[in-house]
Design goal:
binds nicotinamide-adenine-dinucleotide; 20 strands; alpha/beta; 16 helices; single chain
Length: 483
């Protein structure tokens, strides 16, 4: 395989410029620990240059006609499609996701967000009569787009494409583990000939580069996806500048299996969701709530289904589960597994030891616990690794109570006869609830209740987050008297 590309400059004001910050971030493949590339660590001066460029570019970009803006995005999309293989390889190597998922979920599906942003902007009604006022939707301003490592293209494009389509300008900072794709996006924006300063990319750590970006007085909107703790800090910093913040944070999502559900399918869905992308998805159903009287049946099915989730090399087309993103994440997950055992949960499968034959890299055994108490650590904390907790419940009331007894509220699922499942879904405090299976779409709003954040991304509602509302109060009676 050819040597991976490194980037030593930032993309600011339509040019590749040397960073003022001196540090470097080394990126390693979590499957092999091999060095992949380095990118610069930006400092406050780099942040300042990028925000200044975005600030200066904003008025013209906001006034550029919608069709012209969407033409730039259309070219950006075409460029993206032409580099799918390269982007897939970056996703595989940096995130440690097996090739087939890196291609489909992480790369191809992410590109479709650009198309969605174009379509939503094109059909949007920017002006509207409203009870005697004329409501005008205008672009919000300079957007700081800060994303996590677990699905870098998807989570970044949800911010970037929507913001650009709305007429905002953007400074993007990717996560330090997975910065490569952001630099390719900058190359694509350059090739699409976006006006200077409309899209800027800098890399760096969270507490230095990220914090400087959030605190910058010229940033109008911070769009952040990441952990609850960092999200809370960001909200506090942004509040000092009275900035709008969108927070897409963690989850500990329940999947309730009712006693009249297609039982085997429901358990399968729960296991698949917890193990998908090595358990590193914010919307993973990591609490599998099953009726107490069918617990042993659920355990049996779970153990059979889990056989399909074997660990392997990320380069192997057949691999379903790869490593987690880093050695430190591996240790954190293994510590949670030890904690689960210590707190008395029944270990059905997996465990805290490093899997045999996978000593190199950050592999974790796909693990299933049963008879987990909803108050235990593994049922309350977001583990972000391939760990499922089966939690027995006595009746529907208790299932709803357990589902809601969490600091998070990102997603949930209910399996059972439709009417009953919908009734229960309406009582769950979460931003998206699946009934009898995954019906994920790029158009449905995505976002959390409670500690999972606020604001929504994706589709028309996600697009609207990048618009301000102005009401024009037109006194036609007086205007007539002047004429
Ligand atoms: P993280 O919070 O550690 O980091 C996210 C980003 O924030 C990174 O780019 C990081 O450099 C930056 N950052 C860190 N500290 C900062 C600070 N003080 N100021 C500004 N920026 C800062 O999250 P992570 O570990 O990269 O990602 C995993 C988390 O993301 C999980 O909790 C997961 O649930 C969540 N997530 C949520 C969604 C969603 O849609 N709700 C989607 C994916 C991931």
């Amino acid at each position: 395989m050819s040597e991976a590309k490194s980037w030593d400059k930032f993309y600011i004001n339509g040019e590749w410029v040397f960073p003022r910050g001196e540090g470097q971030i080394e990126v390693r493949d979590p499957a092999t620990e091999a060095y992949i590339r380095s990118v610069p660590r930006g400092n406050a001066e780099d942040v300042d240059s990028a925000v200044l460029a975005a600030t200066q570019a904003f008025p013209r970009w906001a006034e550029t006609s919608l069709e012209q803006r969407l033409n730039f995005l259309e070219r950006f999309y075409q460029g993206y499609r032409s580099r799918l293989d390269e982007l897939t390889e970056i996703m595989r190597a940096e995130v440690g996701i097996p090739t087939r998922f890196a291609r489909t979920f992480l790369t191809e599906m992410s590109g479709e967000i650009i198309k969605s942003a174009i379509a939503n902007a094109r059909s949007y009604q920017f002006e509207q009569d409203f009870k005697g006022s004329l409501l005008i939707r205008e672009p919000y301003g300079v957007v700081a787009a800060i994303s996590p490592w677990n699905n870098p293209l998807f989570l970044s494009l949800n911010k970037i494409a929507m913001a650009l389509a709305a007429g905002c300008t953007v400074v993007h900072k990717p996560a330090s583990y997975t910065p490569g794709a952001a630099f390719v996006l900058a190359e694509l924006a350059h090739e699409a000939e976006f006006p200077k300063g409309v899209f800027n990319v800098i890399s760096g750590g969270g507490s230095d580069t990220g914090n400087a970006l959030v605190a910058h007085p010229q940033v109008d909107l911070v769009d952040f996806t990441g952990s609850l703790d960092v999200g809370a800090k960001i909200a506090a910093t942004a509040a000092e500048g009275v900035k709008k913040v969108i927070l897409e944070l963690g989850g500990k999502s329940p999947l309730i299996v009712l006693d009249d559900a297609a039982f085997e399918d429901a358990i399968k869905a729960g296991i698949a969701s917890a193990f998908l992308l090595s358990g590193q998805t914010c919307g993973a159903f990591t609490r599998l709530l099953v009726p107490q009287k069918r617990l042993s049946e659920a355990e049996e099915i779970a153990c059979v289904v889990a056989k399909d989730f074997a660990l392997g090399s990320t380069e192997d087309e057949l691999t379903v589960v790869g490593p987690v993103v880093s050695k430190s994440q591996q240790q954190k997950i293994q510590e949670f597994i030890r904690k689960g055992i210590g707190e008395g949960a029944k270990l059905l499968l997996g465990g805290a030891e490093t899997p045999e034959g996978f000593e190199r890299g950050a592999y974790v055994k796909p693990t299933i616990f049963s008879n987990v108490g909803n108050q235990s650590t593994i049922a309350q904390e977001e583990i972000f690794g391939p760990v499922q907790s089966i939690i027995p419940y006595d009746d529907d009331e208790q299932a709803v109570m357990f589902a809601n007894d969490t600091k998070y509220g990102l997603r949930a699922a209910v399996w059972g006869s439709e009417e009953r499942a919908i009734r229960i879904a309406k009582r769950i405090r979460a931003g998206q609830v699946d009934i009898n299976g995954d019906k994920f779409t790029l158009e449905a709003p995505w976002g959390g209740y409670k500690g999972s954040g606020y604001g929504r991304c994706m589709g028309l509602i996600g697009f609207e987050e990048f618009l301000q509302i102005k009401s024009l109060q037109i006194r036609a009676d007086l205007a007539a008297s002047y004429s």
